[in-house]
Write a structure and sequence with these properties.
- This protein is of the alpha/beta class.
- The protein has a domain of about 70 residues.
- The protein contains 23 helices and twelve strands.
- Strands 1-10-7-4-2-3 form a six-stranded parallel sheet, with helices on both faces. It has a four-stranded mixed sheet with strand order 8-5-6-9. A two-stranded antiparallel sheet has the order 11-12.
- Strand 5 and strand 6 form a beta hairpin.
- Helix 3 crosses helix 12, helix 9 runs parallel beside helix 10 and helix 16 packs across helix 19.
- The protein is elongated.
- The termini are far apart.
- The model has no long low-confidence stretch (mean pLDDT about 95).
- Keywords: 4Fe-4S, Electron transport, Iron, Iron-sulfur, Metal-binding, Repeat, Transport.
């Protein structure tokens, strides 16, 4: 690593080293400005989405079609991936396979070096964020410039994304203005000194800052929303036009694509072109849809590379229940409807995939070795709103329960206060005499405490984890058994 970074540094530390969700959420809730930003943004997006979806009379049929197509892909993923490789190669693209983040980063770094480039321009890509490609390129003295407006805000703010679709959702326009004024000049064309916080002015400053980077970059890096096995085509949908610049101007184009992004035929794209824009940006259609099929002489990049990324996806595929998470098309509808995400934001999840989908996707892609991944399946109220809005009908709440079971199973046999309490409870309930004695003791305690309070306050550890956050009512003074006996004796 060079002493002076080529690009703005994100916060230090590996995401898997993040604190457990409850601790991280508690800290994020304390950010009042962020809570206001999140409330405004998520409620605005969800209302617009509801209106856009209501326009489509066969919306549920489209959801079912998207689910069916994705399920067919997952059942036959090996076949479609081989077909995709053959189609891409026939079109003049070079296909690379990456088992994990380290392999993918090494492949991309070597390709950029082979192109004799010292910088790259990037289309917004969750896959490259997942493998921390920017940091890997920085290690090799290669500057990676984010060109999506929200990603640019995050990068210049030495920050991490907090939303799949709107990475800077936790920032308001006044904060963005300060970031542009302080940071742009250090990494290229500075922002005008009289820059206002008007969205049009902020977008204009970003456009001017990025123009030189677009014009001089010889390598572009992208992800893909879809990869079509039949034709060997990749599809990127976006709203700003920066993606089109990255995909067409550079001589070399490198696309990092998760293996679950494959679709069987070009006709299948029609379904997702209706589901994705309405679910994500609440638009009838996205402003820019770029489709490229390898190399086209005289049009676009002359060197096209596709890196097909596993990085834990086959682990998820091996779980008959968990694999349903791989249907995700990264629309972020579940984030915008989630009452938990609305309060804490994306940073509490310790991953580039936050919200309900992140709570089921991260533990499957990364495993549950880290404290944050063990806690994520519990980062939900299980209200089920995410199930209702998912355009490909992922049963997110059911998968959260499924993964909670896996986390609990992994800890069986490990001594803990919870296990001791459950064992004690089992002993009491195994004999009616012990249960009746416990109920009598509970009733006597309630009578005594009832003179001073109507609820149970903070109790010592480990029960404090429950009582510190809840007003627990006093147990009834009379048990059902006692009431029943009295009725029988009458």
């Amino acid at each position: 690593m060079t002493e002076h970074r080529l690009t703005p540094a994100p916060p230090e530390g590996d995401l898997t080293d993040s604190p457990r969700f409850p601790a991280a959420a508690k800290a994020e809730i304390g950010n009042v400005q962020q809570r206001k930003n999140l409330y405004h943004a998520t409620h605005t997006i969800r209302a617009k989405r509801a209106n856009a979806v209501a326009e489509v009379p066969n919306w549920q049929e489209l959801r079912a079609a998207g689910e069916a197509i994705k399920n067919r892909v997952l059942r036959n993923l090996d076949t479609y991936l081989m077909q995709l490789e053959e189609s891409l190669t026939r079109n003049g693209a070079t296909v690379h396979w990456a088992r994990d983040a380290a392999e993918a980063n090494a492949i991309v770094t070597d390709l950029v070096k082979a192109a004799q480039a010292q910088e790259v321009v990037k289309v917004k890509s969750m896959a490259t964020q997942e493998i921390e490609l920017n940091e890997a390129l920085e290690e090799a003295d290669i500057a990676a410039w984010e060109t999506d407006l929200a990603e640019l805000i995050v990068q210049l703010g030495h920050d991490r994304p907090s939303h799949i679709l709107v990475p800077a959702i936790h920032r308001n326009r006044s904060e963005v203005r300060e970031i542009f004024l302080e940071e742009m000049g250090q990494y290229g064309t500075p922002a005008p000194p009289d820059l206002s916080d008007d969205p049009a002015d902020l977008a204009g400053a970003a456009r001017t800052h990025l123009r030189d980077k677009f014009m001089r970059a010889s390598v572009g890096i992208s992800g893909a929303n879809f990869a079509i096995a039949e034709t060997g085509s990749l599809v990127v949908v976006e709203s700003e036009g920066n993606g089109r610049m990255c995909l067409t101007l550079p001589e070399t184009l490198i696309s990092v694509v998760g293996i679950e992004k494959v679709l069987p035929t070009f006709d299948d794209v029609e379904v997702f072109m209706q589901l994705l824009p309405r679910s994500s940006t609440a638009e009838r259609m996205n402003p820019y849809t770029s489709v490229w099929s390898g190399v086209s002489e005289g049009d676009g990049p002359t060197n096209v590379h596709v890196v097909l990324l596993d990085n834990g996806r086959t682990n998820a595929l091996a779980d008959p229940a968990g694999r349903e998470a791989l249907r995700c098309i990264r629309c972020s509808a579940c984030l915008n409807i989630c009452p938990v995400f609305e309060k804490v934001g994306g940073h509490a999840y310790g991953s580039v995939y936050p919200g309900p989908i992140g709570a089921i996707l991260n533990p499957q892609l990364r495993g549950t070795e880290s404290a944050v991944d063990k806690s994520l399946p519990f980062a939900s109220s299980l209200c089920g709103a995410c199930n209702d809005v998912c355009p490909v009908k992922i049963p997110i709440a059911d998968l959260l329960v499924h993964l909670r079971g896996k986390v609990v199973d992994s800890k069986r046999g490990t001594p803990s206060a919870e296990a001791a309490m459950m064992k004690a409870g089992s002993w009491v309930m195994a004999d009616h005499a012990r249960l009746e004695a416990a109920q009598r003791a509970s009733g006597l305690s309630s009578k005594a405490l009832g003179r001073f309070t109507d609820h149970i306050g903070a109790l010592p550890w480990p029960i404090s984890k429950w009582t510190n956050a809840r007003d627990v009512p006093l147990p009834p003074e009379q048990s059902f058994r006692q009431w029943w006996q009295e009725e029988e004796d009458k």
